Every structure is written in structure tokens, then in C-alpha cells.
Amino acid sequence: VQLQASGGGLVQAGGSLRLSCAVSGGTFNKYAIGWFRQAPGKEREFVASIARSRITTYFADSVKGRFTISREDAKNTVYLQMNSLKPEDTAVYYCAAKRADWGAAALSSDEYDYWGQGTQVTVSS
């Protein structure tokens, strides 16, 4: 299974970006998808995840109310819509996949089996 994250860039504080995670090489609808991020000098942290059902989603407290996650099975793609961006959102964002039950989504990076290469998000103040 291969994951390709894209959509990062440079944006001013208060702006928006939409990240995409394209999944290939597997049966997309068998996987829960998560987004993680890693800022310089910090550990990788959970951002959001979505179950196969598209109904169960989880968000880190730091992004609740600003980020949304969705999936489009016809395109084998998961999206992370990021609004009201803050400088502290600056990081490399990674998407990851794990085989999961219909309504399950994971928050721990240890639970994910496959990872994309990351896309840089930089928010200027």
C-alpha cells in the first residue's frame, strides 16, 4: 500500500489549506486513515483520523473546530481541510493507513501500518 500526501504550502495565519492523501496498491475501503504532523525538534503527533464508515472521526484538541477530515472512496483519497491556520500548525504532515473494522479509527501512530512521505505546511504570522 502506498500513500501520497500533497497540498502543503506556505500560508498566512488565518488562512486555509486542503491536504490530500491518495492511497494506491490496496483496497482503499478496508483502511482507516490518519493524519499526523511533526514540527522541527518535536515528536510526531496525532492530528485527525477517519474510519472506513466516514462517520467516526477523531481530532486532536489543538485542531478541533478548525480542521475537518473526509474521504472519497471513489478516488481513494482522504482530505484534511485546515482552516484558521496558526503558526503553531507549521509542520510536516503525514498520512497513514491501517486495516480496521468499519467504525474504527486510531489515534496512535503505533497502530498504523503504512505511511506517506509527508507534505510541508508553513504558516506565517
Encode the helix/strand succession as letters: EEEEEEEEEEE
Average pLDDT reading = 96
Largest sheet at a glance? Answer: 7 strands, mixed
The shape is: globular
Into which percent range does the helicity of residues fall? under 10%
Radius of gyration based on Cα positions: 13 Å
Uncertain residue segments: none
Instruction: Report the β-strand fraction as a percent range.
Output: over 45%
Give the beta-strand count: 11
N-to-C terminal Cα separation, in Å? Answer: 37 Å
Structural class: mainly beta
| DSSP summary: helix tally | 0
Write the layout of secondary structure elements.
Blueprint: E1 2-6, E2 9-12, E3 17-24, E4 31-38, E5 45-50, E6 57-59, E7 67-72, E8 77-82, E9 91-99, E10 114-115, E11 119-124
Parallel strand pairs: 2-11
Antiparallel strand pairs: 1-3, 3-8, 4-5, 4-9, 5-6, 7-8, 9-10, 9-11
Q: Could you write a compact summary of the structure shown?
A:
This protein has 125 residues and is mainly beta.
Task: Describe, in plain words, how this protein is organized in 3D.
By secondary structure, the protein is mostly beta strands. The protein is 0% helix and 50% strand. It is built from no helices and 11 strands. The strands form 2 sheets. Strands 2, 4, 5, 6, 9, 10 and 11 form a 7-stranded mixed beta sheet that branches. The protein has a 4-stranded antiparallel beta sheet with strand order 1-3-8-7, with no helix packed on it. It is globular, with a radius of gyration of 13 Å.
